[in-house]
Give the backbone structure.
Amino acid sequence: MDQFDLAIIGAGPAGMAAAQEAAGHGLRVVLLDEQARPGGQIYRDVDRAGSLRGDILGSDYTDGRRLTAGLRHDGIRHVTGAVVWAIEEGFRISYTREGRAAQLAADRVLIATGALERPMPLPGWTLPGVMTAGAGQILLKQSGVLARRAVLVGSGPLLYLIAAQMVRAGTPPQAMVETQTTADLLRAMRHLGGALRGWPYMLKGLKLLAEIVRARVPRHTGAVGIKVEGDGRAEAVRFTSRGRSQRIACDTVFLHHGVVPNTQAARSLGVAHRWNADQTCFAPVLDRWGGTDVTGIFIAGDGGGIGGAKAAEIAGKIAALRIAELAERLTEVERDGHAVPLRAALDRELAARPFLDAAYPPCAEALSPEDKTVICRCEEVTAGKIREQARLGCLGPNQAKAYGRAGMGPCQGRYCGLTVTALLAEANGRTPDETGYYRIRPPLKPVTLGELAAMEETPLDKAEKEITT
Amino acid sequence: MNPASPFLELEQGPRVSVTFDGAQLELPEGANLAAALLAAGVDVLRHTPVSGAPRGPFCMMGACFDCLVEIGGVVRQACMVEVSAGMDIAKPRGDADGPV
């Protein structure tokens, strides 16, 4: 089994920056990523996007080429198309690549698995034609594919970014159905001072809004009673905005109300997580270097708490410094010296975050969906079923699995976990921390018997030898 | 380009033949399969085992497992597969080697 100083899971901004930093200090690094090319979701396929796509997506996207170029280093082995399904003590990492399981070993592991779209269970969200806004972005980045008649639903800066990109591409959305209210904006104003330190972000946001307004894309704010209608596929979005009930016909609906840390890998290792009320999600408990309460396991980027691509890149480097110090490639003094400018840059990157979190809160009716709405897409469990389970005494998500299979499908709770926690917490009058989250066990992604059978031979450990001899 | 598709393709490249549920499609070689199917006007990739409800691609990043299809008898996430010539794609039947 190949042995490395550091294994990094995820080749987005955090993972790529950490790999370059660690290799620069002499560590042998393996970077495992599910995609065929580096970039993560934010810089997805950035090396292959032509100039037309680059112009539509803007320099914030094409800037990712700086990071992908940094992976060309003798100390970095980038394993593409690798789906990691187990991380075990030691650390032994099991993954599938090209229909075959394989394993490698590393002294330390950096989890840089980024974010997932916050689940947005609204009536009709399982219909074909309804996708996440992130999916819409991936279609454009990787494939140059654009929705001709789309409605964007939800809240947050990503919604404006994708709308502006669709305008630039000549396929403006039919409408934006936005859930944030003027009251949210007023509440956010107390964070304005801090946000102004992050003025480049605020300026970018205003420019995006100006592009959307210039293209005359209708914006409906404070939208409630949102549902996607359609017979077998999305056909329209119905909602009420400013007291007026509306129905907008469309073929595609892009949903978004923020992103949340993808905590699957960290949870499978027993890393402690805590509820973050400002971001309405769980996040791992980290020290200032991205270290967790599990020795040797580090987390950087949006998987450690939402901060965006630039913050992820800096956090990746900070974690790599600590790992290089632990591997005795840097002294503590050197480590701290390198970290000073990074921490200052990270502060600037995060300055606008409290304002954005307050101005664009998650959509309330998706956090507490109506009874008939499916919340577990895999097992088709409704919000009403989870509330009924709470009445029968169900206190936590792991019990809910036994009561009604929520979270037991192939996505392993990625798109229902936060909803189930929220529903049970609300019904039982307990906090999200008291309610808890799904216990995540390997395999983190489904692995087939065929893939296991094709596994490269691995040496037996001591106990296995005793059994076989 | 498929004018009936709800999706527009910005760029045109070499195409290869594949079949989806027996129907022949010409998809861009090496493209993301889920994206290519959407652009070809295929929006329903499977029906759920629980209620039989239609599903199509949702997250495009390998997390939601809604775009499961059967390729040559193996269930795969269409958004994690690249198009290659002669792919025999079908809606999953539920008895193939795979995660469902």
Observations:
- Residues 119-257 of chain A form a domain with the FAD/NAD(P)-binding domain fold (CATH 3.50.50.60).
- Residues 241 and 415 of chain A are 27 Å apart (CA to CA).
- DSSP finds 20 helices and 22 strands in chain A.
